[in-house]
Structure formats: C-alpha cells, structure tokens
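FIELD: query
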Amino acid sequence: MGNEKQKTGSENILTGDGFQVDPQVIQKVEEAEKKLSPRFQELDHIKTQNQYKVVKALRENRISDSHFAWNTGYGYDDAGRAALEKVYASIFHTEAALVRTQIVNGTHALAITLAGILRPGDEMIYCSGGPYDTLEEVIGIRGEGMGSLKEFGITYKQVELLPDGNIDLKGVKSAIGPKTKMCCVQRSTGYAWRKALSIDQIREWVLAVKSVNSDIVCMADNCYGEFTNLQEPTDAGVDVIAGSLIKNPGGGLALSGGYVAGKKDLVKKISYRLTCPGIGDECGLMFGQTRPMLQGMFLAPSVTNAALKGALLCGELYSDLGFETCPGPMDARNDIIQAVKLGTPERVVTFCQGVQEAAPVDSFVTPEPWDMPGYEDPVVMAAGAFVQGSSIELSADGPIRPPYIVYFQGGLTYEHSRLGVMMSLDRLLKKGLISIK
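FIELD: result
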C-alpha cells in the first residue's frame, strides 16, 4: 500500500502543476523502460568496471588532500596538476596527459593537438568523413584569415565512411601519401547521421594506417565517448586522443577545461601550442580546479552511465513512435548521443524547448535557432546546465537544416535524463506535432 501511495505521489508531480506531463507519455516511457531492462544491466556492468579502473588510477597515483591546494602565478611545480595528469594517463593507459583549465573546450583540445603535431607541408586525413562543424574553420575547410591549418600550408583530405557505417579501410590506405603525417577519426556522431565508432572499428583502422606507414600519427576525437565501453581508443592503438572536461570525464563537476592523452613526445609538442615553445606544460595555473576535476573523474563512470540510459530511452521511445533513430534501439552504444530524425524544423525546436523546460537552470528560457559561432547553419540548443555549455548535463540541440535531426544527450542522473525525454514528447504532443498510437 505504501508503494502505491509513493507511485501515485510521483505521478502527481509529473502530471500536476509541476510538469503537466500527459499520462499517455508516462505510460509510453514505462513501456520503453521494460523493453530496455536487459540493456540497462549491460550498461551497469560497464559502469562498474570503469568505476574500479578510475579508483585504481587514483590509488596508484597516491591522490591526497594536498593535491587540492591552490597555487598562484605561473603555476610552477603544481603537485596537484601533475597528479591530475598522471591519473588521466593511468586511466587512458598512455605515457602522458595534458589536463588544463586553459583548454576552453573540445574544439580547442583538438585544435592544439592538430597544430602541435602538424608542420607546414604535412598532410592530414580525416578517415570518418567530415570533422565536427567547429573544426572546419580550424582546418581551413571554410573561413579565411583566422590562422587555420590551411593557411600554414597543411593540406587536408577526408575519406567518407562506407554506407554501413564502417571505416573505408581500403580508401584510407589509398589516400595515404608521402606527405601524410596524421590520420584522424571522430569517435562520436557529431551532427552526422551515423553510429559512433566502436573500439573494434578504431583498432582495425589503426592497424590499416600503420600497415602503410608506422610513423603516421593516429588521433581520435574522443568527445562524448569516454567510459561508454570497457576500453578507450588508446587501448586500441591510437597515438593520441583529445576531449572536453564538460563532457563525460568531468562528471558534471569540472567547471571548464579539456584534455589530451597519448605518447609522451606528442603530448609535449601539443603543450607548446597550448602555451608557447620553451614553456609547454611547465606553466598553467589550475585556479583551484584540481579537486572538482578529480572528483568529477571519480563520478564520471556513473554519470556517463546515466546519460547512456537516457539516450537509450530516447531512442527506444521515438523509434516506437515511428521515427528514424541513430543508433537504433538495439544497437551497441559508443557515445552518449541519440539522434532522432524529426523531419520538420518545428519539431526540432519544440523537442529542444521541452528539454529546456526540464532543466534545473534556466527552465523558463525558450530556445530559438540562432547563428552560433563556428556553425554553418542556425542551431537551436537546449542547455539549462549548472556549467554553461556542459554536454554531460541534460541537453538537446540540432542544426536547422534538412532532414531536421535533433541530438539528445546527457543527464547527470538517469531520472533527469528520463524527465527530458518525457517533456520533449509531451510538448510535441500538446502542439499537435506528433501523435501517440
């Protein structure tokens, strides 16, 4: 009897003045959760093993309260910063890592990685189709006069994925030439309609590249992919990875920052692009952020697990309603992003507005499409987060261009991600843009 009362109370919060969710929506979500129970158990196993991996790294590097102390000025001999970077290197099984507040986002982490390794006359190849939108100006695919790689004499090629979503290994081998210095893949979907790359796919790609020239540097954009599997790209032979701390590895606690992890000589070169030649990783104040960065990493496996479950729920629910989703409900997950092909700009905007209403911060704001810096098309973005722009917190976004796809990700808890899914559907239903059969 007590449980029934608890359930009724919970439903009243959702259907009453708090959120005003249609009971049909709640029923559809509960049906989807029943179907997903075995998948949730699989994700819990991955979370558990990754949690132990993180604790092991913290223990091995003898993290103590002294590592949380502030430093000032140049940040010379910052023991906390050094310990933080050793923890990242241990988790990703690499020789070195660069984890800094000065890295402003994932695009910046990738930009310094490319600029740190490549030199005039070198060639780089993206082997997973086009890069994420914001990297196009970094590379020089579009935009002029900003100091892109193209302006410094670095040439670019890209190899499209095969129709089945696999890397075109033959195409990659054929594209490699005498000037090829670096081959890159983007692990997550970005704004593309494709599945995220699996660790096995990345492993095969590395072997293919190295079979042509073992000196070519293999780099993976690891944004949105950390802790979604038992292994990381560096376990599959990738030389260097880069990502953002306000995505998976920051666990929702990191206020800013990014990371690079890989071979020691490569990380050193990259550090010279972060600061300047001769200084590299020797300077860089952490502004007291070693504690939230380390604690965020400690929580990251659980937070990523919550986001993965929310993405699964979103995919299952909208697939059941007849929409194309990527990945599909039963597909393996290699990032936290769920794409739904909604078909009209009105649906994309309304979906995002529903997610925004579920936010703990700025829930009263109504997202509208706008010309965001670095993007080719207007973008609508729902992001009511404690940390501005944090993609590991509940968010949804999409470029306003055909075929009008929305990208749903994040949720520091599964319950919050679940609420975002419910409210996105509820607002579409109330506007008459969707029907529930």
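FIELD: remark
The longest strand covers residues 180-186.
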